[in-house]
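_Per-residue structure_
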Amino acid sequence: MILLSLTPALLSQKIKLGIDVLIESDFKIIKGKKVGLLTNYAGRDSDGTPTAEILNKQKTFALVALMAPEHGYYTSVPAGNTVPDDMLYDLKVYSLYGKNRRPSKLILDMFDVVLIDIQDIGVRSYTFLSTVYNVLDACAEFHKPVIILDRPNPLGGISVDGNVLEPAMKSFVGIAPIPYIHGLTIGELATMFNEEGFLSADENHKSRKCNLTIIKMENWTRNMVWEDTGLEWYPTSPHIPTVDAIRGYAMLGLFGELGVFSIGIGTTSPFQYFGSPTFEPSSFMKNFSRYDTEGLFLVETKFNPFYGMYVNKECSGFLVKYTDKINVKFFSIGIKIFFTYKKTHPEIIPAKISEKNSEMFNKVAGTKQLLKVLTGNYTDDEVLKIARKGLSEFMETRKKYLLY
């Protein structure tokens, strides 16, 4: 693996993303090459110009085609919906969330090198991570080098939380044995995938390795959340319009799979509300107050979803705010919210959880144990032990791949 960076800069200086560093190097590493680019609308330089536009204007190499993950290039396709192939700047945009979720040899044969500039959100179940994994895996198989233009983890690089995915539970919403909240950049994750043997096995039953280069950021540090970067946030999907939506997704997204209470989908603040038409906020708070809220601030309110669960029904609940955005254990807080909801409204468990919802929850959770203990007669400590299974071992492995 090769690491590229310019000279160190003071923390107070402007953050330079991987694309900024590539521009300052006058695109030296890709000169004379045919380039394929995995990106979307949120892949931009620090001034807000799309990476695809920047590369398409250059004359010293050829941008041959683009690839797009779930939600499409413009990040507007709803979650789970097939993304069709498209055109941009007279270039083909190959969907990696359609009939194929992995680039074929036919596509990769068009390129000398694959460039990746994708803004992840720092949560395992968000499928951009799975698409990057699949591109690395395909490029390892077909011997195409990959260059990743690194970008910040919007949740920061300190907080790590949630159980490590069990290998038997591998799916497109959980592609690798990492915690639900990993605290790594996309470049750090890709390096881990490559070096820890997470990619597919070859014909000799050995894990493939990709020819991987990471172009590091400058002036980003692990204690920075998105607001500290000075960068604009561009929606990465329809329900992630803001950085607070990411925090809510990290905390409540998993529990949305169960369909037992609303998590704000269908409102103007997705993942930032929770509640239901029969919810009792005061009873909830009496039980929830026994927990360390760990940076969470709940505002009692009412909300009315325009679509989705409880469409056009007034819900009682809470708006989620934060007093701390760096050290928050979002996954653990989500577990505690569910504990309290179950205690306040025991009628929802398990009668209202369908088999389909249970299966999806298990996929996203990366284990079948968590739902079992959440809905069974287990203590809080027993549930939290499952919710953090494998975390200490991961933290040791993670140290080897920290680039910042």
